[in-house]
User: What shape does this take?
Amino acid sequence: MLSSNLFTRYVPAITKLPLNQRLTKDDLLTEDFLLHQEGKISVYYAPHNEYINVLARVLIVGITPGWNQMELAFRKARGYLEQGLPYEEICKKVKADARFAGSMRSNLIEMLNALELHRWLGVTSCDALFKGEGELLHTTAMLKYPVFVDRRNYTGHQPPLLSHAYLKEQAYQSLQTEATLLDRPLIIPLGKTVESVLHLLAAEDVIRTEQCVWGFPHPSGANGHRLKQFEQSFDSMKSIIGKFSRRNPIQHGLHGM
Assistant: This one.
């Protein structure tokens, strides 16, 4: 399902973008796609997180789409519009193409495999979650539309998300909506900033603490402490996944239907 009708609103602007070539910040960080401006903070539309897979058993939550994901999402959407595909199909395909694209996806898959998440899901590798077995996975960002500070990717720290009224409200509302649309999924927050918002939701019984794999590091290559953080939290995370999987068994062979 689509989470909003914004894609329809932005189709005319997307169709004006160059076709079959990489897009630049001058193409996309423009008034045509600007959603919110507050000092140095700019929020832009992107079709990256419009599609919601309500049947997913695993929900992976990032901070916000970065520039690389934003550019890829627009470039793919432009091509799919040229092919004349239905809007919902375009948004679904764009999400599959762009979510955690690049080395971040590889790092994420490696860590998920180490935790043996694939055994519960009945797939040979978590790589399949981003391919043919995508029905099991939903990915999102607590700030679902790309946020930039002085045209640079927002990392959740400058300014701190919980101390910024607009960003905190957007993150809370977005996660509250998507977490409740899915049927009590296993939630994997990428980093402490995402965890901080999930703790707010857990305190209000929107989600359960045992749903969340606490301690999972952000998989970005820019996170130089990623491997150390993963090692430190490994036993705890594996225990959380093990307990959750035993309480929520999957009937393998049915998830692709």
Remarks:
- The longest strand covers residues 34-38.
- The beta strands are 34-38, 41-44, 58-62, 137-141, 147-149, 152-153, 186-189.
- The longest helix spans residues 226-247.
